Amino acid sequence: MNPLQRDQPMQPLPPSSTAGREAIESALLAWMAEPDWRRDEARFEAAALALFRFQYGACEPYRRYCDVLDRTPEKVQRANAIPPVPTGAFKEFDLRCFPAERTVQSFRTSGTSTERRGVLHLDTLALYEASLLASLRRCFLTDLAGRRPTMRFLALSPQDAPDSSLTHMFATLAAAEGSERSGYDLGPEGLALGSLALAIDAARREARPIVLAGTSFAFVHFLDATDDAPAAGASPAHTGGWRLPAGSRVLETGGFKGRSREVPREVLRASLAARFGIPEHAVLNQYGMTELGSQFYDSTLVDPTGPRRKLVPPWTRVRCVDPDSGDDVPIGEVGVVVIHDLANTGSVAAIQTADLGRLLPAASGSGEASGFDVLGRAEGAEQRGCSIAIDAMLDPSDRTGRRSVHTRSGREPAS
Amino acid sequence: MSKLEIQWPDEAAERVRAAQGRLERAGVALRARSLANRIGAVARVLEDWTRADSPWRRELVESFSATSPFSRGTVAEGLESALRAWDPAQLVAAAERELACGLPGPDGGLPARMLAPFSYTAVLAGGTIPMPTLLTSLLPLVLGSPVLLRESSKDPVTGRLLARSLAARDTDFARAFEPIELPTEDGDALASLLSAPCVVATGGDETMRAIAARLRADQRFVAYGHRVSIAIVGPQATGELERIAGAIALDVARWDQTGCLSPIAVLLVGLGAEARRDVASAIARALDALATTMPRGELPVATRALHAAERAEARMRAASGRAQLFEGRDSLVVLEDDAELRPAPLHRFLRLLPVASAEALRVALDALGAPLSNVALAGFPPEKRREIAAELARHGASRITSPGRLQTPPVDWPRDGLPLFTPLARFASQDD
Asked: How many angstroms separate the Cα of A166 from the Cα of each of A120, A130, A257?
């Protein structure tokens, strides 16, 4: 009997071996294939503790950290007590639970050539891709899943950004769910508006929904470079501006800093909805980071009438904790976002971000959370006491104390 | 009957325009006085703020403590040390030095250049520390340019107190200075403010570019960008370890390490592993001692989050023998085992970076990634100190000083490498 299967009683944890990891992954793949997203905390606990035992044994820097904190598998009895590693640790250590020679893919966080960049090493893409597809189908494609819509990406292609997790995600999505006309409209030279316009023309002629996805800063450049008129170089048939056919949707992710002007998330969403002629609930934001195997999507297509929030796949757990004590803050209160992502089998599953967020209560009044909201993060030395206020004055995203940026690991997207 | 309050949509912009009108009128009286007279008048106001029994400084300590994120001990020590370091005579000397061409000759002859002050100057106060607000508000007055001070939302008291101190000294100067509070989101008010013929602002590069983009070519823009300050400790420091460590701790604790003059890191040049550990331990002890007299202000949750992330990351490296942590009650010192620059969460979070040699120091300075402001040097023989100072100047440092004095520059320190007055002035020559 597999202890990780639904509705099964807790069983002894698997050994901290590769075989143990394979058993966990097998169970997780089955979990990700389930059509509904019912939370099953007992199942999560069992899987998390089993995975912790494996990762403690297989990842030396993590084991040392846990030892210093005196939180070893023998002492940790619940998933929330498993030590999360800060995202910065992915810059400092090779956090992998397998020999380096078995690496099949390394995703890197964005940064300049001289900066140390965070790296997620993977020895298999099966779980990674299963997780991303399950979430995208459930939260973003919804009724378009299996209908192979055309997908256009305002992101670099795999050839241009081979170590970008975001690009890999888009490529995986296009291969699994996109039409043959899917492709990339951003290159090293910038936006390719002509090809995007042609794809939109075609979708409009066929009255088929189209999917647009890309980095937030690329969409800002798109908004700056276009208006409601047809794009230069577009086909003669492109007479409807940038309006998308009914049922189309847009996915944006990542920040802006240094790549475009910064735009409050709400303003970007409204601008994209207006430019593409789609309802705002069809413009989704993704919260993800290179260090994670899973991502989090706005709820608006799944629950158009509820508050916009990030949905949590059942094989992940999102907590908001007090920065000092590490204890969970009450639902609705602001804390540091800690993510426990079981899809991270080959590295470390529990991640401590520097992002602030809050859990949102379920409408049922059950006292459980229905999702979470990301509020941004603090800046470091670049925000000094002698200038912080004036920067805020000219940065409308900071008016409410919320920053509009940094929804992908607090850094620019890895594209 | 309830009181009905109507606020027009452009109320803030209208307040700016009204203030501009008043200031332009006040400028006539201000410029009617000689340059030498204005220099003397501003020096007297500065004296009122810097003398030992200054009532203005005392009042600022109380009012700023109540509104700022800093503890009262930090505010009191910070204002006392910084303002007492300002010598009005140095301000006068700097004005006479920089503006000599606008002053009458020794024989009473005509000045070599005509000083053509801007009709008024808009100063955008940027932060949580009063000294830049005080100085940037006073300097244009010397030149005969009234000042419209946009108060920082983080400091609603300094400008108003300065206005009262001017009024107590000199009616013309009082009329020539107006602090104004503007809503952050009011674009019209900001546009009005930025219509000033001379604009002074401090902020990040993007902010400065954003302001510059809004100005006309004929407007003067004096921009003070983001800078970082550091301390550099050499091998001779071990002889006076406690004194140097205490001084560095004071630099860190002042304004909770959030000023441009606060050291974000200490570079340990040419020190062995044991000496590095001794320095780190001594600084940590000194910081912890300051937690009693100058406790750190309460941190917002976002800052605590950043601290938590960086602390956890440092602990993880420490667990693998790649860093050492020295934790105090409200401070953290991280002794790194390489010179790589890592995030600086500030608020008494200090990194010590080992640097093997002077050559490696050059590499470390290059890697800072931000222009240098002030640098505190200690523990080097005089010749080496001069050599390093020259290197620092090449890297943009505008002041080389000693530990314990980073936050207390003299009033005539060339901030961002700029003279005090000439960037704010216009000059004209007159051919025979």
From this structure: 12, 15, 17
Choose which CATH entry (3.40.50.2300, 2.30.38.10, 3.40.109.10, 1.10.630.10) describes domain A1-85+312-377.
2.30.38.10
Residue B410 within a domain: no
State whether residue A396 sits within 8 Å of chain B by CB.
Answer: yes
Residue A370 DSSP code: E
Residues B281 and B273 sit within 8 Å (Cβ to Cβ):
no
Q: Is residue B128 in a domain? A: yes
Rounded Cα–Cα distance for residues A220 and B407 (Å): 40
Q: A324 and chain B: CB distance < 8 Å anywhere?
A: yes
Q: What is the tens place of the pLDDT at every residue in B159-217?
A: 999 999 999 999 999 999 999 998 867 788 889 999 999 999 987 777 888 899 999 99
Q: Which CATH architecture has domain A126-310+384-398?
A: 3-Layer(aba) Sandwich (3.40)
Do residues A240 and A248 touch, judged by C-beta distance below 8 A? Answer: no
For A357, the 3-state DSSP assignment is strand
Report chain B's terminal Cα–Cα distance, integer Å.
Answer: 72
3-state secondary structure of A177: helix
Count of domains observed in chain B = 2
Query: B404, B417, B410: which is closest to B83 by C-alpha?
Result: B410
Q: Are A48 and A342 in contact (CB under 8 A)?
A: yes
Q: Number of C-alpha atoms within 13 angstroms, CB side, residue A72? A: 9
Q: What is the pLDDT of residues A229-288, one digit of tens each?
A: 555 555 544 566 899 999 999 999 986 655 667 788 899 999 999 999 999 999 999 999
- Taking the Cβ of residue A328 and every Cβ of chain B, the question of whether any pair is shorter than 8 Å is answered with no
Which residues lie across from A252 on neighbouring strands?
A214, A285
Establish how many alpha carbons lie within 13 A of residue A380's alpha carbon, considering only the half-sphere containing its beta carbon: 19
d(CA A159, CA B214): 40
B126 → closest Cβ in A65, A336, A389 = A389
Measure Cα distances from A127 to A133, B59, B214 in Å: 10, 63, 50
Interface ipTM > 0.90: no
Kindly state whether residue B323 falls inside one of the protein's structural domains: yes
Q: How many helices (H) and strands (E) does chain B have?
A: 15, 14
Based on the fold, state whether residues B185 and B254 are members of the same structural domain.
no
Pinpoint the alpha helices (H) of A240-320.
Answer: 265-276
Give yes or no for a contact between A220 and A261, defined as CB atoms under 8 angstroms apart: yes
Dist CA B135 CA B149 (whole Å): 12
Averaged confidence pLDDT in chain B? 92
Domain containing residue B356: 228-401
CB atoms inside a 10 Å sphere around CB A94: 14
B202 and B237 fall within a common domain: no
Measure the CA–CA gap between B381 and A266, rounded to whole angstroms.
58
B277 and B317 belong to one structural domain = yes
The span from the CA of A414 to the CA of A161, in Å, is 8
Q: Residue A66 corresponds to which tokens in the numbers above?
A: 């846990």
Burial track A228-247 (b if 16+ CB lie within 10 A, e otherwise): eebbeebeeebeebbebbeb
From B33's Cα to the closest Cα of chain A, the distance in A is 33
B409 assigned to some structural domain: no
Same domain? For B134 and B235 the reply is no
Answer whether B125 sits within 8 Å of A389, measured CB to CB.
yes
End-to-end CA distance of chain A: 42
Interface test with B, best of A91, A220, A386, A404 (most B CBs within 10 A): A386
Residue B275 and residue B325 in one domain? yes
